[in-house]
Amino acid sequence: MPEPTPMDGLTIPHFVLVPLPAQGHTIPMVDIAHLLAERGVTVTFVTTPVNAARIRKVIDRAEAAGLPIGFLELRFPCAEAGLPEGCENVDLLPSLELTPAFFRACGLLREPLLDRLREPHQPPASCIVSDMWHLWTQGVADELGVPRLIFHGTGCFPLLCMRNIRSSILFDEVNDDTKPLMVPGLPHRIEITKGQSPFFRQDPESERLWNEMLTADEACHGVVVNSFHEMESLYIEGYQKAIGKKAWAIGPVCLYNKNEDVSVKAVRGNKSSDDGLQCLAWLDSVAPRSVVYASFGSVAYISPSQHVEIGEGLKASNHPFVWVIKPREQSPALEQWLAEGFVESTEGRGFVIRGWAPQVAILSHSAVGGFVTHCGWNSCLEAICAGVPVLTWPFFAEQFLNERLMVSVLGIGVAAGVNTRTMLMGDEIMVKREAVEESVRKLMDGGEEGEERRKRTKELGEKARKAMEVAGSSYQNMTDLIQEVSLHNVKVRSKMGREA
Ligand code: UDP
Predict the structure, then answer these.
(1) Of 117, 250, 271, 300, which is least surrounded by CB within 10 A?
(2) How many Cβ atoms from other residues are within 10 Å of residue 236's Cβ?
(3) How far is residue 401's CA from residue 159's CA, in Å, rounded to a whole number?
(4) What is the structure's pLDDT at 424?
(5) Which of 20, 23, 280, 371 best tests ligand 1's pocket when mutated (most atoms within 8 Å of CB)?
(6) Ligand 1: does its nearest atom lie under 6 Å from the Cβ of 356?
(7) 292 falls in which pLDDT band (50, 70, 90)?
(8) Where does 14-255+468-499 sit in CATH, by number?
(9) What is the pLDDT of residues 46-61, one digit of tens each?
């Protein structure tokens, strides 16, 4: 059955999507491009050569399916911004200290993007959906005379918490970084320490960026959120009130792939490593819900010593496991430790993935029963959609707030007990092996508490699926969003017609 079109009688709108080149921001934008295109909207997805190469299969598939998505490649100005050549994604930066230079490079895309969007063969843009960190896209939208919508990549619970933490003097006045403080103005009692706050010990450049980013919400046309009403309606309402703008919850967008095709799930964001593909075959041989999957997203850095503690903790828990080590984290010392007994002693019940894991495909496998996560927003949603409870191990940004949502509000997570925000790149250990073992046992526990947690996660996953179905809340919000942009264009055109 063809998807019902929400634009009857109106011209087909053209959405220009400008994602931040960071996996946690780009992947959901790719999903949004598909969701829009499936509803008949013309989409331009802005990317760069290195990032386009990573999603080549997705691009080819969209083309083969005849979806109206154009992938617009812009040269990424590494040299001009002081970045090593090829650093076109946050996960390719040799050090997170280069983040300001990376943002500078993004800002330099403004003129080339405007030029390309003005090329005669391009359909006129109807709106820009921009990542929150691309503050420069407001200028692009203004020059084109179209609305700018912001995509934050996170949910309304963390967004509202962040706004309320910033506007509260409580967090400034306290000297003790470990004292739990109540986040003001929320429907639930949520506590967080100063050391866990996203703004803890920020350098002035990041401080300025956060301020600008959070206030930009008030200047934009509205906000697009990868979330769903059934999960955080109170917070969606609270956030809309706070910014005085509409927030369209259209997710979880990872569910766009309705036919659950594993080959599609396995190429999200990047080409899966060989280990990753072999892992999927290995999972077929393991008992249902017995495996714990440990992966910390695309940016958080796990030191070699911390990896050893994770490995020992997983092994001691006695549960089968899949454990991801990012390319940036691989080291001769870690390889040596793996080779000197670990791999052998966990043979048949442990699987190490070096490189990109097909995460959604792994989480959706019936053998997986728990997820050790850094609490990136996408990872949290992907766990919910798969009905897999989480062991929360946040690092930075809004991840501690996402942990509170998973553990305290939704009751689908166990906290690993991380006390403070960390962006360190040294050889630190945040959680010792005994604590890893204990919390993994708790997560995978088949007792009453564990079963209740599992049941809640599953029920929430069902609600997520319903939200994305025809007539579900997120589906309806997508309809509203498309109509809003279409009607806005009609109004602008008729005003221009009257003025001519
Ligand atoms: N991801 C993946 N394979 C990996 C690492 C990450 O598929 O080996 C995906 C993951 O499924 C999610 C995204 O990358 O969609 C990471 O986003 P998230 O918000 O969880 O964390 P971030 O990387 O932004 O910290």
Answers:
(1) 271
(2) 25
(3) 9
(4) 61
(5) 23
(6) yes
(7) very high
(8) 3.40.50.2000
(9) 999 999 999 998 889 8
Using the atom order of ligand 1, give the atom closest to the CA of residue 254: 15
Residue-wise over 251-264: b if at least 16 C-beta within 10 A, else e?
bbbbbbeeeeeeeb
> Is ligand 1 within 6 A of the CB of residue 299?
yes
Mean pLDDT of 23-27: 96
ipTM over 0.95: yes
Distances (CA, A) of 199 to 278, 302, 426: 40, 21, 21
Of residues 339 and 202, which shows the higher confidence score? 339
- Residue 241 confidence (pLDDT) above 80: yes
For residue 73 the two structure tokens come to 């490649």
Task: Indicate if the pLDDT at residue 8 is higher than 70.
Answer: no
Q: Do domains 14-255+468-499 and 261-464 have the same CATH topology?
A: yes
Measure Cα distances from 427 to 8, 79, 424, 443 in Å.
58, 30, 8, 27
- CA pair distance 238, 242, nearest whole angstrom: 6
Q: Which phi and psi angles does 409 have, rounded to 5°?
A: -90, -50
Provide the 8-state DSSP code for 340.
Answer: I
* Nearest to 379, CA basis, from 488, 437, 294, 436: 294
pLDDT band for position 1 (50/70/90)?
A: very low
Question: Which pLDDT does position 490 carry in this prediction?
Answer: 79
Please indicate whether residue 379, judged by its CB atom, sits closer than 6 Å to ligand 1. Answer: yes
Query: pTM for the whole thing?
Result: 0.95
Q: What spacing in Å lies between the alpha carbon of 455 and ligand 1's midpoint?
A: 25
Mean pLDDT of the chain: 92
- The structure tokens listed for 362 are 């792994």
Under CATH, to which class is 261-464 assigned? alpha beta
Centre of ligand 1 to C-alpha 298, Å, is 5
Q: Report yes or no: 412 and 457 within 8 Å, Cβ to Cβ.
A: yes
For the chain, the structural domain boundaries read 14-255+468-499, 261-464
